[in-house]
Structure formats: structure tokens, C-alpha cells
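Please describe our next protein:
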Amino acid sequence: MKDGFIKVAACTPEIQVADVDFNVDKIISQLEKCREEGVKVAVFPELCITGYTCQDLFFQNALLDKAMEGVVKIAKTTADSDMLVAVGVPVRANGKLYNCAAVIQDGEVRAFVPKTHLPNYNEFYEARHFAPYRGECAAIDLREYGQLEFIPPMEQTVFVCEEIPELVVGFELCEDLWVADPVSNYLAKAGATLICNLSASDEVIGKDSYRRQLVSNQSARLVAGYIYCSAGDGESTQDMVFSGHNIIAENGSILAESRLFENGITISEIDFKKLAFERRKISTYPASAEWDYSSKDSGFLDKDNISRERFSLEMGETALTRIFAKTPFIPSNQAERNERCHLILQMQSHGLMKRIAHTHSKTVVIGISGGLDSTLALLVCVMAMDLLKRPHTDIVAVTMPCFGTTKRTRSNAEILCDALGVTFREVDISKAVLQHFEDIGHDYNDHSVVFENGQARERTKVLMNIANQVSGMVVGTGDLSELALGWATYNGDHMSMYGVNASIPKTLVRHIVQYYGDTCTSDTLKDVLYDILDTPVSPELLPTDESGTEMTQKTEDLVGPYELHDFFLYYGIRWGFEPSKVKRLAKYAFEGDYPDEVIDKWLKTFYRRFFSQQFKRSCLPDGAKIGSVTLSPRGDWRMPSDAVAKLWLEDIDK
């Protein structure tokens, strides 16, 4: 359970209808496998002890008595395990029969959670056999079936973990999710962060897709983990077919999913600290202690009918099996990635279009270096002008070669501008920078930060003054990764009138430019974009070699690989993970790519720079939010510029 990860399982055993002994043995067998895998919460299908399709056999006392014996037998096999287990079983109470989840732990049946909404339409007729739960409670005496120490209640219950307060488990059964107002809504308001659904959802054409969307959406709406466990092979096929479709989701993301018509165990790990962080962050999410359960909308699911029981788990490290992408900002699926890139370009260009129209700018002015960031910004400018039905010549692209500019980037900048049909200007800033060095008494051979920043600020001055000349506005090119690291010259490339790349991480910039190149119709434009993609990332502020072709300065040699920094940014800032947890996930995701000491080195660099460079982010130009992470002081991120990084740096070495 280290770092908030809990291993969970959705289990679909083979069953035989009305053969309780057979079913119980199969359930116990799967529980043994779950125990071997370190599972802490295991969920089985609805009515799996008897079979969901028993029909009028549910009226037979022989079946109901045997089902209770089976529940107790399963419970006894968990005596030496702390796993929280839920199995489906019919329960007699209050003179009625209820469709229940038996919640089991430490050798005992802890509670029976009844189903609220009974489908009685199409192929379903549960109301023929079962009573819907309407808030009534009962004590279920299991002594005659072999459980002597504890009499479990039948009521709606959430289970709170003593060792991990972020883990609160609630249960609903099949139709309870499919209705307009799911039971899990109330469980989440009562504090549940994990919803377990015991289901017997039959398979019809298209239902698997709908089911997947339903589970994903509900987990997102509730900011919760969700285990959906459905009946499979072995149920009666007299009128229905069951596919055993099991789904494990976390806040809208599908973590694991079974193949249809394959009984078995689906396992993943849910991060409950992550869920708790997100709930705290969302100001509209109700606090469970303050929720008015007795409001008229909640009906019988009020504060008196959602009880809270405590359970305990043995602490230990959860072995991870779920995938943590090396590039979390980038979809792994090619089609989805292309769709994402297209949408981002649309968002960027529409944001810029509005700003151009609002300021009545006759032109936009942009510095073009032949690198990735300025290339993407220029493409966005072109799209914005297309939206405004204005000529590309209203874009003034300025290349400003100096001591570190290579022939390759200088050439690519001009070819790119020519292919796009924009107004191209070249302003060699070498003389101006040398004059500035002379004015302030700086030795040209001293390649310190003064040498570099002098060039960056000169370029910004040129762009601003050209914008005044042509009644334009300067479009910024810096990206989110650079802002996180403070890899920008204050009042140099840090400044513009509108920053179109401000919330796009470096790893994603590359894919957007790649997408544009893949989909454009000009071979010349395509070729130059591909060559820009192949060019190392560099500010080109230190002198080149004598031939003018080789860079002597590469950004990732200085601050570290951007794929690592974007990983740190996503998990450390977006999700608020502790640095030690970020380090653990980075070593897991990048195993074989970077030695552990390299990850440690750049993680410390990330946090040191993130804290020390906040002053640059506190006065950023405007720029529309594009993704889930932005560092704008007017948007998602507000941080004092003089905050101390000591706590975060110490945690890395913990």
C-alpha cells in the first residue's frame, strides 16, 4: 500500500447454476490466486454463489440455506487473510428475499449490502424474486450456518480502512449503476473512494462499449476507483448469454479490462492518494462529513442508512502491474494522438485569433530560430490568419542570428517561412550585442549567463520594436516544460504579448509538429518540418564551431531529458505526488532507459529549478490553457516566489 496503491481484483469464476458447492470451491480457488498476487480488495459477480439465473429456484429454502452455508465457508477460508472480499448471494430478511453483496474479511461475514434497484423489464424480472432495498435493516443470524462470533447486519454500508484513511469502500449491485441516480452517487458522498459493483450483465450487441463508457464516466464523475465484476460462462444460456466483462477504472481511466467470454481474474492497482488529492482540489466536491444525507433528493439513502464500518489491512509495498506511460501527456494510440494534436492546434489558433481581432493588430511578429517551439508557434499564427481570412504576409517572422546560430537552423528558418508564405526578416544582432557588452564592460570571451542573456534580451527588444513598426503584437514561443524549469531569460524570451505554447509540454510540441508535417500537402514544408524535428533542442547562445555547423550547446545536456522532466511535471505538479513517489514511478516507467542515479539527479534538478524559478511564472504573458496542466498565475498554479524546496528535496532521499 506504499504511496497509496491498493491492488484490487474483479473475479469471474466458472459456475454451475444452483450447484453451490461447485461455485464456492471455484470462488475459493480464485481467492487463493488473489492472495498470491497481493490483492487487498476482491469482488465477485452478483449472486455468484447460486448463479444469477436460478429463476424460481430462488424460492427454494434448500438453495437459500446452502447459499448461506457457502458464504460462511468462503468467509472461514479468509481467516488468515486481510483481503476484503465481496460475493453475491440471496439473503432472507424481514420476510423478504434480497439480492445482496456479502462483505467478508478476517474469517467473518462482516455485512450484507442489499441491491436497491431491481430491473423488471425486457429479459430481466428480478422483482419476481427479490425485494428492493428501501432503507430497512436486519441482523442476519448465521450461527446455524457455522459463523458464531459475529451477526452481520443487512444495510447499506461503507468500509473505512484504518491504516489508509483515503480508502473507503462502498458496494452497489448491477442495476444500481445503470439507473438515472446511481447508488454510488450516495456512497461517494458518504466518503467512498472505491465503488465495487457486483453485476450479472448479460451480453448483447454493443452493450460492452456502453458498459465500458458507463463505468469510466461514473468513476470520473465520482473521482473514484471502480471495480465492475460481471457474471460469465456457466450461467444459464436459456435466454441470455453472459460474457464476464470485468472493468477496473480510476477517475475515468480504464486500468484493466477482461476479454469477453473468458472467465478469470482481472487485477490492477488503484491510487487512492491520487483520488484524495483530486477530491480536495475540486472545490465543488462535497465533503463527506458535511453532506446532508437527509435532503429530499436522497430518499431512503440518508445518514441513518449508510453506516460506516472499519476494517484493517496489513501494510506493505504493492507490486505495480499497471502501466505508467513515459510520456503521460501523449496518447499511446496513434489515432487518438492525431486527434489530440489536431484539437490542440485548433485551440491554439482560435485563442490567438481572438487576441488578434481584439487588439486590431495589423500583424503578428514572431521570432523564428529554426527550432521546435518557434516552429509550432508560427504554424499556429498561420492557422489563426486563415481563420481570420487574412494573408500569411500579415505574419512577420524574424530570424536574429548571433554567435551560436548554426547554418542548419538559419536555413530551416528561412525555408519554413518561405514555404508558409509569411513575411520574412533577418536582423543580425551580433553588432548590437557586442556594443552592449562594450557598454557594460563585459568580456566577449566570458561565456557566462551575461553572454547568453544579453542575446536573448536583445532578440526580445528587436521583436517588440518591430511590432511597434508594423502595428503588430509579439507572439511568444516558450513551452510549458521551459516554464516549469525556468529555462527562459527573464524579460527575454520569457516575454511576449501572447504565449501560444505556454501550456504545451516539450514532448507534446514534438508530436504536434510531427502531425502537421504528416498531414500537410507541401513536400517542401513537410521536409523542413522533419529536419527541424531531427535538430537537437538548443537555445544556440554559445558560439558554434569554426564551420558554423555544429552546436556547442544542447539543452538536455544542461537541464536533463525533457521526457523525464515532463514525467516529473505531470505526476509531481498535476497530481501532487510526493517526490519519493514520483521517483518510484519514474524508475518503474523508465526501467532500462536511465540508471537510478540519473533519475535522482534530474528529479532534484527539477524541484530545485521549479521552486527557484517561480518568479518568472508569476508574471507570464497571457496564453490560453490547453491541457490539464498549466502554470499561469491566473490559471491553475499559484505559488509564492520565495517558497523553499527543502521539504521536497529531502523527500527524494527518503
In short: The longest helix spans residues 334-359. The radius of gyration is 31 Å.
